[in-house]
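Tutorial handout. Part one gives the primary structure; part two gives the three-dimensional structure as tokens.
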Amino acid sequence: MMNTNRTLKLTTLALCGVINILGGTIALLLRLPVYLDSIGTVLAAALFGPAAGLVPGLISGLISGMTSDVYAFYYIPVQLVIVAGLVFRRLRPSHTAESRSESLSLRSMGWKLFPAALVISLPGTVVSSTITAVVFGGITSSGSTVLVQLLHSLGMNLTLSVCVVQALTDFVDRMIVLAVVLVILPAVHSAFGSLSMRSRK
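Part two.
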């Protein structure tokens, strides 16, 4: 039973890392002003807590940095993982309470999605905007770079341009990420419950 749970957890964390890579690659190829590279990170943090949530963030950051986007090395979302784990501290899977899974749906979350996205995005915004402005001069592989350059060309200070765009795009990105995670969490809980029941037989 213990080995089964451990295998399930490791497999889920690996899958979360793949989800990060796929999301980030899609956003990069389509030049979207959002990132979509932390869906797996937030899902893992919601399921297993901040420590476990760190794993897919590291996996996706390292693999993406070595294969498709070198900038990913600098944006491994450690701060996002920690705060996401705190926001989702009550969202770990329960194999016996179906009502608990239902309470984690997007519909039940409602307006709370907005402050949750804000809380999760703030630490990452501070760190990532600093990296973007200081290390890369406002130019990265993200589609949001176009918005930064537009504001800067209109006379806004480069650092301020980066901060404004980063704050807006981070918030929208976290809203999307949280919404996606909340949509799939009930299904994940149900799958975990079914696998747990089978392992006991």
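Part three, for discussion. The first helix runs from residue 2 to 29. The radius of gyration is 18 Å.
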